[in-house]
Amino acid sequence: LQAAVGTEQTRTWVFEPNRERGLPEGLTIEFVLEPGLGMTFREPEDVIGALNYAKKSFVFHSDIDYSRDSHGRLNGLPPRFDPRSPAKKALRELTEKEIVKNDIVFRAETAFFRTTDGTYVPVSFEIAPERLSWRDAIADVTLFGAVETEDGTSLYRFEEPVELNRTSDGPSVFDLPVQLAPGSYTFNLGVLDDASGKVGTERVPVFVRGFKEGALDMSSVLLYTESREVDGPPATPGHSFQFGQIHFTPAPGKRFTLADTMGILFFVYGFELDARGQPRLTSDYALFKDDEKLSDVPAQPLQASPKQAIARLELPLEKFSPGSYRVQIKVTDQVTNEVITDRVEFLLDPELYPVADYSVLVD
Fold first, then answer.
1. What is the band of 232 on the pLDDT scale with cuts at 50, 70, 90?
2. In whole angstroms, what is the distance from residue 355 CA to residue 362 CA?
3. Got the DSSP string for 72-124?
4. What does pTM read for this prediction?
């Protein structure tokens, strides 16, 4: 509202132009005093028309075509807004009856990062290609799900249409962001092949970890195959592993080939500052194959702000032999000499992923 002016007999409300709210030309509403009725619209039809226009632009969803057929039903309703969509039916069977379907085989992996008001939980879907309907190396699927608390309360539901690209060396992947308070949850997750109607679902317990203020701690360790600068916003579908303007592609199943460069990424929180108000953190790494130590990466300083630090390392794998490996990680706060450690395992394998590996959700 830009202005409200008038006398005891009249009053005028003037709304400034606002295209995003459906008022590209602004809006002027005039009231007059009617004996026994108080202030009423001077031109009610004009006002009602303008308000309906604004309501359509501001309240209505841009993905919905609000035209109606001869029976008064909406035309062009996307499946995500359809209460009878195949994905919603499969989700109800999963949450209410615990009916699990495996016509589509997939694995979903979670990671945990600190935020100011909870824990950020990217969920990475790895979908086996064999049972999808491909058209020119493209498959249209719908990822759907619901997150439940221990008492069965549903906190987060999603139904996301996704276009998958077929790869020659493993599953097709896509990620979705979730933010939760620390605690125990059930992740009800599903994949629907839009063309065939085939469905795969999983009902998986997940414990979402928290991060204490003032205690040295680190996020999940992300192993990635590629990093690139992107324009899209972070923490959105397909950009769950984007930090700033850099998107990281998680390694499906933590498996790599000899042609890959393995990337390691994690964040550090809760460290102390020195007398100049600066953090002083280092990280070092030890690489093992089975139980044999192969090499060390000497301690190196971490890029840090007063709130968090980021550790990033990339390791070419072309000179390694296939097998099971682990990386032992040590982070030292040089101000307090406090140390935290973690470890992450990966598999170096020139072969493709066995389909059976996709059926287990790893948290």
1. confident
2. 15
3. SPBSS--GGG-TT-HHHHHHHHHHHH----BSS-EEEEE--EEETTEEEEEEE
4. 0.75
